[in-house]
């Protein structure tokens, strides 16, 4: 397959208009409509991914965007995620992110494409100069950084894995706790040149069993910010049976998984602290990217 055509990444081009960054030009609803009903054309494959990930263009009525298409047919079965599929989990993660008001997950829809049903997500171009994670030869993190733990870097050497003490990452740590994200790696973080942070790759989320595995443990055990508690209160209200978010999740994940989301939000509100690693599940994904 040929290399992807260079559509302005992370951008939507309105008919006759300039290219805005991310989806700051057309509103989010217009972007969702474009992703859901525009003509989808495959431009290339992202070969580093373990499942089929296709770089695409989507176009309708002169508006055009770069996007990612992950068909269900290209997913590898996972023994510990036997229910549903990765594509629907990706869309469910977007729905929860949208409900928080933080909009940490790019606009994502479920639709038919050239290879059947799959998720389609707006392409986001990351700022290569933005540093959010690092391995440092030190015992303690520098100011502005949080320690995750020591890592074996080969030849008998260890380094301290750290992440930025960044409010955007802290919001994402809360979202991941709600989603029960089993694979939050550094390569899933997409900071943009405008200062916005997006997070991608949410196929292994929403398991009814505790599987939180992340690089964002720097706040483990610390009190949740008031902002996060307010967001969790809103989620709790929206997740009651018959609530809008509960109804949307019921279309995408199992009843047991939806109930587990509700229970995690209730637990976070009760404890009022960031979760800490525990249990038999490895708490940190490796390699970290």
Q: Any key phrases for this structure?
A:
alpha+beta; six-stranded antiparallel β-sheet; three-stranded antiparallel β-sheet; 23% strand
Walk me through what this model shows.
The two termini are 26 Å apart. This protein has helices at 28-37, 86-100, 167-179, 226-238, 244-250, 255-271; strands at 12-13, 39-45, 54-60, 63-71, 108-113, 116-122, 133-136, 145-154, 157-164, 189-191, 197-199. With 289 residues, the protein is an alpha+beta fold. Strand 5 and strand 6 (116-122) form a beta hairpin. The longest helix has 17 residues, at 255-271. The strands form 3 sheets. Strands 1, 2, 3, 4, 5 and 6 form a 6-stranded antiparallel beta sheet that branches. It has 6 helices and 11 strands.
Set out the fold topology:
Blueprint: E1 12-13, H1 28-37, E2 39-45, E3 54-60, E4 63-71, H2 86-100, E5 108-113, E6 116-122, E7 133-136, E8 145-154, E9 157-164, H3 167-179, E10 189-191, E11 197-199, H4 226-238, H5 244-250, H6 255-271
Helix pairs in contact: 4-6
Report the average pLDDT across residues.
88
**Shape, please?**
globular
Order of helices and strands: EHEEEHEEEEEHEEHHH
Q: Approximately what portion of the residues adopt beta-strand conformation?
A: 15-25%
Task: Provide the gyration radius in Å.
Answer: 19 Å
Low-confidence stretches: 1-26
- Report how far apart the termini are: 26 Å
């Amino acid at each position: 397959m040929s290399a992807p055509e260079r559509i302005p990444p992370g951008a939507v081009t309105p008919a006759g208009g300039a290219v805005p960054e991310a989806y700051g030009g057309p509103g989010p609803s217009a972007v969702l409509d474009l992703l859901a009903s525009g003509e989808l054309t495959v431009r290339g494959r992202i070969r580093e991914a373990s499942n089929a990930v296709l770089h695409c263009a989507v176009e309708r009525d002169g508006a055009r965007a770069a996007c990612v298409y992950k068909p269900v047919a290209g997913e590898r079965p996972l023994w510990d995620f036997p229910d549903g599929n990765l594509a629907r989990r990706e869309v469910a993660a977007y729905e929860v992110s949208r409900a928080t008001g933080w909009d940490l997950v790019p606009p994502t829809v479920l639709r038919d494409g050239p290879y059947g049903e799959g998720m389609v997500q707006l392409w986001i171009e990351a700022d290569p100069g933005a540093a959010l994670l690092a391995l440092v030869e030190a015992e303690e993190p520098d100011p502005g950084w949080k320690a995750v733990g020591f890592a074996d870097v080969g030849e008998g050497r260890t380094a301290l894995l750290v992440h930025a003490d960044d409010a955007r990452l802290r919001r994402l740590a809360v979202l991941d706790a709600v989603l029960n994200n089993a694979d939050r790696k550094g390569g899933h973080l997409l900071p943009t040149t405008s200062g916005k942070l997006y997070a991608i790759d949410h196929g292994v989320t929403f398991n009814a069993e505790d599987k939180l595995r992340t690089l964002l443990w720097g706040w483990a055990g610390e009190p949740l910010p008031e902002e996060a508690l307010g967001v969790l209160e809103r989620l709790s209200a929206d997740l009651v049976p018959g609530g809008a978010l509960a109804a949307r999740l019921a279309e995408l994940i199992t009843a047991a998984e939806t109930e587990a989301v509700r229970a995690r939000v209730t637990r976070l509100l009760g404890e009022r602290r960031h979760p800490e690693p525990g249990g038999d599940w490895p708490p940190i994904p490796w390699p970290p990217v």
